[in-house]
Write a structure and sequence with these properties.
The longest helix has 10 residues, at 2-11. Strand 4 and strand 5 (64-78) form a beta hairpin. The strands form 3 sheets. Strands 2, 4, 5, 7, 8 and 9 form a 6-stranded mixed β-sheet that branches. The chain has a 3-stranded antiparallel β-sheet with strand order 1-3-6, with no helix packed on it. It has a two-stranded antiparallel sheet with strand order 10-11. It has one helix at 2-11, and strands at residues 15-22, 25-27, 33-42, 47-59, 64-78, 81-90, 100-103, 106-115, 125-132, 165-166, 170-171. It is elongated, with a radius of gyration of 30 Å. It is mainly β and 174 residues long. It folds into 2 domains: 2-132, Immunoglobulin-like (Sandwich), CATH 2.60.40.640; 138-174, no CATH class.
């Protein structure tokens, strides 16, 4: 009986992720980072490390096709019992594509994933959230050349004369 309870105790994870509190959407105009509150429960009076990963990916109904964002952070918990920790990762949300369905059940999705166990246990908890691109990106004038067509005489600062040369036109006619 004692051996059976010991095996159950060893099989139990040292830390459980109870909840991930995250905003359902992040807006490019107001948010400068991704953040979440991770609630954990530690069964032992020991120091444990928790990995939190913010992911952005393209997927269909069956599988993940391409992951374009993978930002991770770690935090440490000490002692037994329940704790809530806030994690935050600076991300340029303006540069990310918005959450949306592209075509034929292919969609852009974002999630946060928290894990207290070893990676090979595959025992993580994750929540999906949305990224909304609600900002208006201003056009940068120096990226696009501006061509000025000046039909004035270079030397006289007035309409072209018969034998004068304009700035952009070559030879001017009266």
């Amino acid at each position: 009986m004692a051996a059976n309870s010991r095996a159950t105790e060893e099989a139990q994870a040292a830390v459980q992720i109870l909840n991930i509190g995250i905003s359902p959407e992040f807006k490019a105009s107001t948010d400068k980072s991704f953040y979440a509150n991770i609630t954990t429960f530690s069964h032992y009076n020991a120091e444990e490390r928790i990995q939190v990963v913010f992911k952005g990916y393209i997927r269909n109904n069956k599988e993940l096709i391409y992951e374009f964002l993978h930002e991770q952070c770690w935090f440490t918990i000490e002692g037994a019992g329940q704790q809530t920790n806030k994690v935050e990762v600076d991300v340029r949300i303006r540069r990310l594509p918005p959450s949306m369905e592209v075509a034929n059940n292919i969609r852009i999705e974002y999630c946060v994933q928290a894990n207290g166990d070893a990676w090979y246990n595959n025992a993580s908890l994750h929540k999906v959230f949305k990224v909304i691109r609600d900002d208006h990106v201003k056009e940068i004038n120096h990226l696009y050349p501006t061509i000025y067509n000046v039909n004035e005489c270079v030397g006289h600062n007035q309409c072209c004369h018969k034998n004068c040369e304009a700035l952009n036109e070559g030879n001017c006619l009266q």
